[in-house]
């Protein structure tokens, strides 16, 4: 293929300010002056992640922060507990920053910490809004909590802007895309706002408000290729047109069914900026199905090669969406790892239950094509679907082990509240746990089946042992453990499967779990 000369593209996307001093100030333009009449309103965004620290920075929070300070006359600050998971950190942050408005992002697994953070903020007399997967799927329950004034549904940028514009102007009423509770306690239900059509209009994430060096140090997406790479995650698109029962319709509620993509030029501009600012050597696309639009991917590869940066990268896609010619094009542009959802070796589970729409033959073929082009493969698999037998789980483990893949993630099946499979299980009489920490696909399930939790965990550990003890993985495991950063990355991954008694535990977790269980039970 003929490509353009190796030239650097100038970064055109609206970029975050330089990190020098900005993470402490969190300002957009003028310096805030708390307590003085001309002080700009301050918005604090909290990301209370207390479990499983990783190199995956909170891209949603960072994008929202950048969007708000680009469109509203406010200062924005962020509190991210990923590398310092203490409630005291949130208390200290709110006392120091004294924000006027507080927003909190949360998934189901972050519900307990999110609610506690909301109570801490509300006690300081500020309005609190929440967003993310859990508030999107269960706003009617959360909005009745005294510490929550609004639940933002799905994609948050435009809805949050409209919500805060109203609050800052003294308006108190309904907002499209959010459930809002007014000062007199009246609840205004909301419907989901349409997604942003032009994703190129979004500013670059507010990297300056996060400890990006900590995230880069913890990043391990390309460890199977070369441990210790300086890398970050990038988002190229939103939306998913597929119907997997373990994701939908929650994924639709978050980002819509139609795939919306940034332009290849816009994405490459961001990557150039990240290279210039943080000296990245690689990146990973967070998109669920990166190769859905083949024309887009081909153009992206052309532009990336033209930068001459010689970066390596990875993505996730479906086994039936990456033809050998496209794999070759991507590998020539630096692709070194691809994640593929295999889910299960048995058609009864993969198609009859998960509605995956991918055959075993397509999975096998794509993994082998990737190997032939020097691309590592990460297989995503689930164990413990309702009614899944031991024999079926062992078949999944054996198939994964037999394929020429470098990595595998054996998650426990967890029905996400609001998904088709969760609703089906509830309708069939499965009793779901009220303990939100049971919605943890690394370690637990929120339901009891014929196979005990203890035995299921043993099967999961056997899966990892069987897969990584195979001679085909000795080289990649040795490479990962040969460097300090690679060894740390392996350690973080091991924490996901060690017995809970050996894993670090925050002393306030039990109280937060009980409170979150009350909310889940009421919903």
Would you write up a description of this structure?
The chain is α/β, with parallel strands linked by helices and 523 residues long. The chain folds into 2 domains: 40-188, Rossmann fold, CATH 3.40.50.280; 206-518, Aldolase class I (TIM Barrel). Helix content is 39%, strand content 14%. Residues 1-11 and 20-34 have low confidence and may be disordered.
Number of helices: 20
Strand percentage, roughly? 5-15%
**Distance from first to last alpha carbon:** 56 Å
Lateral strand order in the biggest sheet: 2-1-3-4-5-6-7
What does the largest sheet look like? Answer: 7 strands, mixed
Overall strand count = 15
CATH homologous superfamily title of the largest domain: Aldolase class I
Number of domains: 2
Q: What average pLDDT do the residues reach?
A: 89
The level of helicity is 25-40%
Shape: globular
Structural class: alpha/beta
CATH class of the largest domain: Alpha Beta
Radius of gyration: 23 Å
* CATH architectural arrangement of the largest domain: Alpha-Beta Barrel
Regarding quaternary structure, how should these chains be classified?
single chain
The CATH topology name of the largest domain reads TIM Barrel
- Uncertain residue segments: 1-11, 20-34
């Amino acid at each position: 293929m003929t490509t353009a000369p190796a030239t650097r593209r100038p970064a055109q996307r609206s970029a975050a300010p330089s990190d020098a001093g900005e993470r402490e100030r969190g300002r957009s333009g003028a310096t805030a002056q708390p307590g003085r009449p001309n002080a700009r309103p301050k918005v604090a965004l909290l990301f209370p992640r207390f479990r499983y620290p990783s190199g995956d920075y909170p891209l949603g929070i960072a994008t929202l922060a950048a969007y708000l300070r680009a469109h509203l006359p406010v200062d924005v600050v962020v509190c991210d507990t990923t590398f310092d998971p203490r409630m005291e950190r949130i208390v200290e942050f709110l006392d120091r920053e004294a924000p006027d408005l507080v927003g909190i992002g949360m998934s189901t697994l972050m519900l307990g910490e999110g609610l506690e953070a909301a109570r801490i903020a509300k006690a300081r007399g500020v309005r609190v809004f929440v967003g993310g997967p859990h508030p999107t799927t269960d706003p009617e329950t959360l909005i009745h909590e005294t510490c929550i004034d609004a639940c933002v549904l799905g994609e948050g940028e435009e809805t949050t802007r409209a919500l805060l514009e109203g609050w800052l102007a003294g308006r108190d009423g309904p907002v499209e895309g959010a459930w809002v509770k007014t000062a007199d306690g009246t609840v205004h239900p909301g419907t989901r706002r349409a997604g942003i059509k032009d994703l190129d209009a979004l500013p670059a994430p507010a990297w300056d408000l996060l400890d990006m060096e900590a995230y880069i140090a913890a990043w391990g997406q390309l460890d199977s290729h070369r441990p210790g790479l300086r890398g970050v995650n990038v988002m190229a698109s939103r939306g998913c047109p597929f119907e997997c029962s373990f994701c939908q319709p929650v994924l639709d509620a978050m980002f819509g069914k139609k795939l919306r993509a940034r332009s290849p030029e816009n994405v490459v501009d961001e990557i150039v900026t990240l290279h210039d600012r943080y000296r990245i050597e690689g990146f990973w696309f967070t998109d669920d199905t990166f190769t859905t639009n083949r024309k887009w991917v081909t153009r992206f590869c052309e532009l990336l090669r033209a930068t001459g940066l010689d970066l390596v990268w990875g993505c996730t896609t479906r086994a039936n969406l990456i033809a050998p010619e496209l794999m070759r094009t991507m590998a020539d542009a630096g692709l070194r790892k691809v994640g593929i959802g295999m889910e299960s070796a048995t058609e009864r589970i993969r198609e009859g239950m998960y509605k995956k729409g991918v055959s075993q033959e397509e999975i096998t073929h794509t993994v082998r094509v990737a190997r032939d082009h020097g691309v590592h493969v990460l297989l995503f698999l689930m164990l413990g679907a309702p009614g899944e037998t031991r024999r079926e789980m062992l078949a999944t483990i054996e198939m994964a082990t037999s394929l020429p893949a470098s990595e595998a993630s054996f998650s426990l099946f967890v029905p996400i509240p609001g998904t088709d499979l969760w609703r089906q299980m509830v309708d069939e009489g499965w009793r779901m746990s009220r303990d939100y920490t049971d919605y943890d696909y690394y370690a637990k399930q929120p339901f009891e089946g014929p196979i005990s939790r203890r035995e299921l965990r043993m099967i999961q550990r056997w899966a990892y042992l069987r897969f990584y003890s195979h001679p085909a993985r000795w080289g990649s495991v040795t490479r990962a453990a040969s460097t300090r950063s690679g060894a740390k990355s392996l350690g973080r991954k091991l924490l996901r499967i060690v017995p809970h008694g050996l894993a670090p535990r925050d002393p306030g977790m039990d109280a937060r779990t009980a409170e979150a269980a009350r909310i889940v039970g009421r919903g």
